[in-house]
Amino acid sequence: MKITSEEIQYIAKLAKLDFTEEEAVVFAKEFDSILSHFDNLDREDYTNTDMRERENAISVFRDDEVQPFKDQEELFQNAKSKRESYLELPKIVE
Amino acid sequence: MVFETIIGLEIHVELATKSKIFCSCPTTFGSSPNENTCPVCTGMPGTLPVLNEEVVTLAVKAGTALSCEINRINKFDRKNYFYPDLPKAYQISQFDLPICSKGYVDVALGEKSKRINITRIHLEEDAGKLIHLEDEPISLVDYNRTGVPLIEIVTEPDLRSPEEAVAFLKTLKSILQYAEISDCKMEQGSLRCDANISIREIGTEVLNTRVEIKNLNSFKEVLKALEKEEKRQRELYQYKEEYKIQQETRKWDAAKGKTIPMRSKEESHDYRYFPEPDLKPVLIEEDFLKRAIENIPELPEERKRRIIQQHGVKEMQVDILIGQKELADYFEEVLSCGANPIEAANWITVDLLRVLKDIDISEEGVPIKANYLAKLIELVQTGKISRTAGKEIFDEMVRTDKSPEALVEEKGLSQISNTSELEKIAAEVLSQNLQAIEDYKNGKPQAIGYIMGQTMKATKGKANPQIVKEIIEEKLKKVQI
């Protein structure tokens, strides 16, 4: 796997991050090393693996019960601007 | 060249659970803004989602009702994008292992039936609601809907006209309502539809550039928006300018009756999906599956067959009854009150339907109590009141909450107020009271009171006094002495 700094810049743009060319080159190398680690997993054969036999591999469910959270004051304490109980933002134009 | 229209739909349906998909906030519609929120659905750091079991049950029921394969192992993925309606900056959805795949719906199109294939159904969380103010440079955010469970149903591009798309949607809605998966209220956004539409030359198999239309909030808008886009694209093909059709997402503006472009072209749809690390894969065990399927309520087609077989009602009428679940439920409730099925079907599909043009029964309920309609049917069938009187009482029951018996009494509509019968009785009374007639003719108007009294006595007080009075006055005028 070879990640280019152009790919880094594209992903950065999607993630709304800003990197210099130098940073992008460094990240490209680091991405590469992470992805090559995943290549190890690809070399394993999982065809006969049944997730059901793996302890803790399967989702646990919650009952459909309502338990309201009451402290909206605290929940939205970091909101920069509110109008009544709405959060207020600069207008988003599509 | 002859062209055909190719339409595929993506339908988002809010599941009828009490709590959200990954937290215990209520899913109630119409709460005050941001009332139904908690650290989980607002994406606070350190919180973890826990899957609501009922969501899986309802999705399995939906998949089964739509003849899908249920994927016994499915999983959640993160769909990453930035928008203020999504506090986590990713939506938990399903990407490569959805809960259901490969289903179909048979849609009745006039005499014929057409099979519309379903590609997949996946689970996801709903996003919040944004309100863009008109007069200020402000948008308001309400996270109540964030985390409400959704299924997204994706169809194959099997639909060939806007009418077919609407017919499919109606059938789908009816199935989902019967299966009690969602209330499917388009006006409240619990059923939402996006449409992909393109044009191609008949006989070819290519799929040309398509346009996605969002924000279709009623069947009427689906029809209008698709007809408009279909016309635009067909004209471009006719003038060989089809290269002007771009793959894009457009938003339907119902007020202006046109579509407007939504997302800028350069922003490619790269959602960088990856497996959701906070949730384990979902395993649907055999007994879970069995339980979910066993508990699916009777679906429209089954109900139709049963009503025809069990009650002998005409197919055309049954189609009307099952077309709206509330109506079919009402019909069977009337029957359970002892009404004759054929008569009940007639009253509901003719008289009630006339009244329902102005009433939304999914909101307000049927305006006549089932036991009242059953009683009315009995009164007419046993000849206690005439059919005409029955219709009068029916209309009155729509307006008031009175029982048919009370109305028969009040309006004097029992059969004995039938004019011809009363005329006979009055004639007989007159022929036995010649003295009274003579008195009347000799200027004693009070004699009429005596004759009326005798007539009332003859009918054991069941006659409508107003009608009796008119009949007697009429007859006395004609008497020559």
TrEMBL record, chain A:
GO molecular function: asparaginyl-tRNA synthase (glutamine-hydrolyzing) activity; ATP binding; glutaminyl-tRNA synthase (glutamine-hydrolyzing) activity; transferase activity
Catalytic reaction equation(s): L-glutamyl-tRNA(Gln) + L-glutamine + ATP + H2O = L-glutaminyl-tRNA(Gln) + L-glutamate + ADP + phosphate + H(+); L-aspartyl-tRNA(Asn) + L-glutamine + ATP + H2O = L-asparaginyl-tRNA(Asn) + L-glutamate + ADP + phosphate + 2 H(+)
UniProtKB keywords: ATP-binding, Ligase, Nucleotide-binding, Protein biosynthesis, Transferase
EC number(s) recorded for this UniProt protein: 6.3.5.-
SUPFAM superfamilies: Glu-tRNAGln amidotransferase C subunit
InterPro entries assigned to the protein according to its UniProt record, in alphabetical order: Asp/Glu-ADT_sf_sub_c (IPR036113), GatC (IPR003837)
GO biological process, one term: translation
Pfam families linked to this entry: GatC (PF02686)
Purpose: Allows the formation of correctly charged Asn-tRNA(Asn) or Gln-tRNA(Gln) through the transamidation of misacylated Asp-tRNA(Asn) or Glu-tRNA(Gln) in organisms which lack either or both of asparaginyl-tRNA or glutaminyl-tRNA synthetases. The reaction takes place in the presence of glutamine and ATP through an activated phospho-Asp-tRNA(Asn) or phospho-Glu-tRNA(Gln).
Record's subunit section: Heterotrimer of A, B and C subunits.
Family under the similarity heading: Belongs to the GatC family.
Protein name: Aspartyl/glutamyl-tRNA(Asn/Gln) amidotransferase subunit C
Gene expressing this chain: gatC
From TrEMBL, chain B:
Ligase in keyword set: yes
SUPFAM superfamilies: GatB/YqeY motif, Glutamine synthetase/guanido kinase
A single GO BP: translation
Enzyme class: ligase
InterPro entries recorded: Asn/Gln-tRNA_amidoTrfase_suB/E, Asn/Gln-tRNA_Trfase_suB/E_cat, Asn/Gln_amidotransferase, Asn/Gln_tRNA_amidoTrase-B-like, GatB, GatB_C_1, GatB_Yqey_C_2, Gln-tRNA_amidoTrfase_suB_CS
Domain of life: Bacteria
Keyword flag Nucleotide-binding: yes
Residue ranges occupied by any Asn/Gln amidotransferase domain in the UniProt entry: 329-476
The enzyme's E.C. designation: 6.3.5.-
Any Pfam family the entry gives: GatB_Yqey
Catalyzed chemical reaction(s): L-aspartyl-tRNA(Asn) + L-glutamine + ATP + H2O = L-asparaginyl-tRNA(Asn) + L-glutamate + ADP + phosphate + 2 H(+); L-glutamyl-tRNA(Gln) + L-glutamine + ATP + H2O = L-glutaminyl-tRNA(Gln) + L-glutamate + ADP + phosphate + H(+)
Cited function: Allows the formation of correctly charged Asn-tRNA(Asn) or Gln-tRNA(Gln) through the transamidation of misacylated Asp-tRNA(Asn) or Glu-tRNA(Gln) in organisms which lack either or both of asparaginyl-tRNA or glutaminyl-tRNA synthetases. The reaction takes place in the presence of glutamine and ATP through an activated phospho-Asp-tRNA(Asn) or phospho-Glu-tRNA(Gln).
Subunit structure: Heterotrimer of A, B and C subunits.
Family, as annotated: Belongs to the GatB/GatE family. GatB subfamily.
HAMAP family reported for this sequence: GatB
PANTHER family with a match to the protein in the record: ASPARTYL_GLUTAMYL-TRNA(GLN) AMIDOTRANSFERASE SUBUNIT B_E CATALYTIC DOMAIN-CONTAINING PROTEIN (PTHR11659:SF4), GLUTAMYL-TRNA GLN AMIDOTRANSFERASE SUBUNIT B MITOCHONDRIAL AND PROKARYOTIC PET112-RELATED (PTHR11659)
Protein name: Aspartyl/glutamyl-tRNA(Asn/Gln) amidotransferase subunit B
